[in-house]
Amino acid sequence: MSDNTGAPLGAPWAQQPSLVPPPRPQEPPPGPEEPKKRPLRAVLLAVGLVVLLGLVGIAVGHYAWGPKPPPAPAKVVSAAPPPFDVAAALAKVSPAVVNIDVELGLEGGGAAGTGIVLSPDGLVLTNNHVVEGATTSMRVTDVGNGRGYDATVLGYDRAHDIALLKLDGASGLAAATLGDSNATRIGDAVVAVGNAGGVGGPPSASPGKVTRLGRQVTAADEVTGATETLHDLIQVDADVRSGDSGGPLADPQGRVIGIDTAANAGYVFDEGLRPHEGFAIPIAQATDIAQRIRDGKASDTVHIGPSAFLGLTVVDGGNGSGALIKSVVAGGPAAKLGLKANLLVVGVDDKPVTSATALVAVLDTHHPGDRLRVTVAGQGGKTATVTLIPVSGPIG
Question: Where are the alpha helices (DSSP H) in the chain?
Fold first, then answer.
């Protein structure tokens, strides 16, 4: 991107009281009064048939949490001394970091994550899973100037877990300096920066090194267990935490080489993966998708603008039979046409629908106001086709 070269990063950070990296906060233990968690993919590294649950028009495996708890006591990461000046790298990258807070209106909860400023006028790169499910409000706080902004999602790529935001009324922001992820090598020193624990404020930092490249992993939602496969990731031994999603993985010079997106939540499924390692999307891949979104170039995976919302909760019907309707959203397009639970969605227009994931993929190529011919099947196998006009719905 032509405006991704960045702005001077020293001055905005000089407003902060300290250049010492804040310790990684400890997340509060789960309990009935504190159901909220923050977006971060948990890596399963398992291959097999996946059954996904989601709200069609929101996402398959969207992220829903309850009220945001108060900040937890700090916890210092136990790690070997970093092989570089972590505070200096953090000082360079932090002014181009934003904290993202999302309200999930249909779920009555919220989510928190991180983003990277790409341009002084407020283009922000983050993970799709940070913002998916957003319905009513998205507030972004720029670390560089301390100001809060409302944000609009310009587009997203669910398959690659990328979203591009625009901050309303932003100007003069410190933009990230981007590195060359294609030049990244195993053993390179890195620091994962982000809104660890979703507590806001100055970013926290976790140093480490690159342990593997070109990783393909299956990432799971912390709450629902819904999964998707991500490709060509950078694996690091930095302690990536919930809330870090969408934040920068930086080199010792503070240049962004990746986007924090997933963590191994203590599971070891194959040789070479240790507990609590993290994964990042290479910045070259991420900015290529962001540029396509900025240029308005939709594709089979890149969605531009508002999401098409039918108002159906679906799961896989099994054996490629379709997307089984579990419930309908009151007042939504499907409810108004009388669609009911236990019907199978088997086609949209001329495209067969074999699963919940396939239905979401088809909807990602449509927009509010499109006329969709949706074919459903009953228990006896009889089919009927109805015309549904999606409305604008939750992001991603």
Answer: 10-13, 86-93, 128-131, 283-294, 333-336, 356-363
3-state secondary structure 31-45: ECCECCCCCCEEECC
Catalytic residue among 101, 142, 157, 161: 161
123-126/59-60 β-pairing = unpaired
Helices and strands in the chain, H and E counts: 6, 24
What residues does each domain of the chain span? 10-54+62-294, 306-393
Say if residue 2 is exposed, middle or buried (CB neighbours under 10 Å; 0-12, 13-18, 19+).
exposed
Cβ-based neighbours of 310, under 8 Å, separated by 6 or more: 56, 57, 332, 333, 334, 363, 372, 374, 388, 390
Instruction: Look up residue 88 and give its DSSP letter.
Output: H
Amino acid at 94: S
Q: Which numeric CATH code is attached to 306-393?
A: 2.30.42.10
The single residue of 62, 129, 160, 366 carrying the catalytic annotation is: 129
Catalytic status, residue 245: yes
pLDDT tens-digit series, residues 212-236 = 999 988 765 544 344 678 899 999 9
**Residues 76-134 pLDDT 10s:** 343 454 579 999 999 999 999 999 999 886 656 788 999 999 999 999 999 999 998 88
324 residue type, one letter: L
Cα–Cα nearest to 244, from 30, 15, 42: 42
CA distance 251 to 390: 44
| 129 part of the active site | yes
Q: Which of 181, 206, 242, 245 is catalytic?
A: 245
Q: The pTM is what?
A: 0.78
Length of the chain counted residue by residue: 396
Residue 182 is given by DSSP the state G
Beta strands, E only, 16-72: 41-43, 53-56, 59-60
Q: Please give the CATH architecture assigned to the domain spanning 10-54+62-294.
A: Beta Barrel (2.40)
Does 299 qualify as catalytic in the annotation?
A: no
Show the tokens assigned to 163: 């979203």
